[in-house]
Amino acid sequence: MTLTPGTTALDGGAVNLTLSIVPAGGGSEWLVFDYTTANGGPLASYNANWTINQVGLDAAVPVNFIAAFSKFSVNGTAQTPSYSFFGGYSVEADPVPGGTGMGLGVGGFVAPLGSGPLGGLGAFINPWGSYLSSAGIDPNAVNGYEQALEFSPVTLSAVPLPASLPLFGTALLGFGAVRYGMRRRGKAATA
Q1: How many domains does the chain have?
Q2: Mean pLDDT of all residues in 167-182
């Protein structure tokens, strides 16, 4: 599958994935993966070991992974969890520009990933029903899951030219002093 905004059918047409790329401040972008069942039924059975993975993503430039957000929905309406069952996440409003509802988010970190193929990104809930029920979400009604991942380009800071010239000049003076000292020692030895 190519990383192209739009909707793609997965799992033999049972699940639709809608991918969006949403610009955010400071040049960062949210990759939003929105999974919904095609027939309106639940995403997973109560005792399922539920896993979702986004693999094969390729960063064109070096990036920092800076935030993540997940929310569960019933017929497009976000379900507000009573607590976070994802470690390190907290219950918060959707931070994606234009997003609505409450979910589970984490941010305020910088994880440099470089450019090229990114590792597998995703989530798992095992068992599905127990975790969602404990957070006040009906697992038998949830037919949508959104995972949003925020990336920012890595900014490389160059050494300012004025600072590098004096260092280069100092090195040349050092080499000159060493050569001068070697000549003086050579003349003293022959005298």
Answers
A1: 2
A2: 55
